[in-house]
Specification:
Elements (H helix, E strand, L loop, with lengths): L1 H21 L6 E5 L6 H17 L3 E5 L6 H8 L7 E5 L1 H10 L10 E17 L7 H13 L5 E4 L5 H13 L4 E4 L3 H9 L5 E5 L2 H8 L3 E6 L26 E9 L4 H14 L3 H9 L2 E2 L6 H21 L6
Parallel strand pairs: 1-2, 1-3, 5-6, 5-7
Antiparallel strand pairs: 3-9, 4-7, 4-8, 4-9, 4-10
Helix pairs in contact: 2-9, 4-11
Length: 326
């Protein structure tokens, strides 16, 4: 009798688990954005959340939580149930680099699973509007002279160990020019100090607002860190057109992540909904208007491989500049 009772209870629990997975989502889904409102990450989230919600049949609510290179938001996601109702909008910046750079970060990259990519961003080489240079080669010469005079240029990032911090360190290494890192909690405050002239440069995903700021003379866009000019931003040279930094080419992708132990059925539902969202003409047009490229369609297996490859790539970059956790 006891064994029958145990089997019955086990069967009921299994049925309840399967039902919960099949019923996903059973309530609104939170899209956790690891930066304050106003930055490009926030733009991405608010471009896709309504359509994603329609695909899922439940509202998708954007929550902004900045700090510690995105690791505060990532940690909050890990502290939630593994049921897919809290999704992390992230990139290698928060999930691969932050654990390498911040000793306070206790999670590993492998604690997350990439469900699907949502956008790829081109990185703009942005400077304050009154920096006395007009192209990359002039910038390198100016930075060298400033360093020689004991006034090294300053570069912004969204936090220690972030992708943009690594870009600045890598720039300093390949040019042999000392530069000073100025970390912020997100792209929006970094951009404000760039506009006001409090920091010299910020290598950041290029968005529509940057183009408008450039047209107004409030910032300069010396180049995009791309091997060729981008169709949606042909006014800006590719960094490969410079002499000093022709091989300094990078971009950054954003994806939607869940905890590693999220049930496969939930992952499949999220993956299908994200893929459906990316077929929406309005979503694609708005992403492209923000100078973002919708990614090619990825299978769940392809997404997993892309994340694994990204972990290897960025850990190699961190090693090359001797990044130390602080």
């Amino acid at each position: 009798m006891a064994s029958r009772t145990a089997a019955l209870i086990g069967g009921l629990l299994l049925s309840a688990t399967v039902f919960a997975q099949n019923a996903f989502p059973a309530k609104p889904v939170t899209l956790m954005v690891p930066y304050p409102a106003g930055g490009l990450s926030d733009v991405i989230a608010r471009t896709v959340n309504t359509t994603l919600g329609k695909q899922l049949g439940q509202p998708v609510i954007v929550e902004n939580l900045g700090g510690a290179s995105g690791s505060i938001a990532a940690t909050k996601v890990l502290n939630q149930p593994s049921d897919g109702h809290v999704v992390f909008q992230g990139s290698p910046n928060e999930l691969i680099l932050a654990p390498l750079a911040l000793s306070a970060v206790k999670f590993k990259s492998e604690d997350f699973r990439l469900v699907n990519m949502i956008a790829t961003a081109q990185i703009g080489f942005l400077t304050r509007g009154n920096l006395p240079v007009n192209n990359i080669d002039e910038f390198v010469e100016y930075a060298r002279k400033q360093a020689q005079q004991g006034r090294p240029i300053t570069y912004a990032s969204v936090g220690p160990g972030s992708f943009y911090h690594l870009l600045g360190e890598h720039l300093s290494k390949v040019t042999g020019i000392p530069m000073v890192h100025v970390p912020y909690k997100g792209g929006a405050p970094a951009e404000q100090d760039l506009i006001s002239g409090q920091v010299d440069i910020f290598m950041s995903p290029l968005g529509t607002k940057h183009v408008e700021l450039y047209k107004a003379g409030r910032i300069k866009v010396l180049a995009l860190l791309s091997p060729t000019r981008i169709d949606t931003a042909k006014d800006f040279p590719a960094i490969s057109e410079s002499k000093a930094l022709k091989d300094f080419t990078f971009n950054i992708w954003t994806g939607y992540f869940v905890k590693r132990d999220t049930p496969e059925a939930v992952v499949a539902t999220l993956h299908k909904a994200i893929a459906g969202t990316l077929t929406d003409p309005t979503v694609r047009a708005n992403l492209e208007a923000a100078s973002l490229t919708p990614p090619p369609s990825l299978s769940i297996a392809d997404a997993a491989k892309a994340y694994t490859d990204g972990i290897a790539q960025f850990r190699a970059i961190a090693k090359s500049i001797n990044l130390q956790a602080q």
